[in-house]
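Cross-posting from the modeling subforum.

Setting up a comparison between two proteins and wanted a second pair of eyes on the formatting. Protein 1 (sequence, then structure tokens):
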Amino acid sequence: MEERFTHDSVLLKEVVTHLITDRDGIYLDGTVGLGGHSEAILEALSARGKILGTDMDPEALTASSERLKPFPGRYRLVRANFRNLNDVLDGEGISQLSGALFDLGVSSLQFDKASRGFAIRLDGPLDMRLDPHSKLTAARICNEWPAEQIELLLREYGEERAAKRIARLIVDVRKEQPFETTRQLAELLESKMARKGKIHPATKTFMALRIAVNQELENLTRGVESVISRVANGGRIAVITFHSLEDRIVKNLFRSLADHGQVKLITNSPVCPGDEEISRNPRSRSSKLRVIEVTA
């Protein structure tokens, strides 16, 4: 039986309000996912406005294509990593964009599907790849990387205070049995690490592994830096983050670009979801939207 997924894109109204400056323009959705933001943007644009959507996940592109069917001729979807945006834009014959959006969250298509290996609460292969064709998996990290490298990963990407202890646990356990499933790793950390309130002890470890597997932070920086030269003067770039490390990188990157006169900050402080959205979609709680406008 075919699985169907719903996904509530966060900060929809806020994205439309802050991103669109030209209703006839071409906009990039660099992380199109299930198409929620692209749909909202297309609805707000004129009949001449268009969307170019990219994603590494073939399943996401299939789902977003279905969702955007009511807008024939106004969208184009490409399987690509947004770090390679210049190549994508050249391939599509697009020299200039009116704006660009990057939503760094993991969609329900990935998070709620056990076989993708993202979720602590579901038992599936310890995978975590957004791009199923990439070689590095979370299992490979846990089974092959040295303790020192795992510790550094957990400390830098997960901001995990117990990084050294967790890395040693992983290395000790894999000597007896290699890690193959999400349940193995989640149950190990639940049994050995103290729980803080309702937060599962494996939360930061899973996040760090996901970031490393998909090179999320490197891709984010390269994607934003590359798209600036393709956004028209007065066009905007919006980024939605979901944890403090991502937000700090975006904040510092935007401020550096502003200091060099390339952009101006549209949001001095991040835009966050209101109580109504959080109540309707608890996963939106940690989301933050930052926006810049290209000036040079």
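Protein 2 (same layout):
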Amino acid sequence: MRLRGLILDVGGVLTDGPPVTDLPARSRAVGVRTALLTDASSVAPDLAALVDVVRLGSDGPRKPHPEAFLSAAAALGVPIRECVVVDDAEANVRGAREAGAVVVRHVDATTTVLEVEILLDLHPEHRSH
């Protein structure tokens, strides 16, 4: 099965900067739809510009409820089982998994980027250092 969606947390994931912040553009370049999913009430415009869809805490169910992840996938137009969710909070990773997503628990940028590259078949030579 080809994975066609990437759903990223903001705080604790994208706030780590490059090379994590390069993942949305790299994913979009190979046809993967991208979203930010956060419980915050707003997202910095520069981060929002990286992705196709932004889902805020005020948009519906909040993480770690599985419905939050299902809602983000629906906004992407991609079934949740074809989405990779990257989050740093254990409860959110469990919620995403319960929803049916492939999950990556973000601990550090190097590991997260490598795991997403493998799952989405991204080429490491396009990685920023």
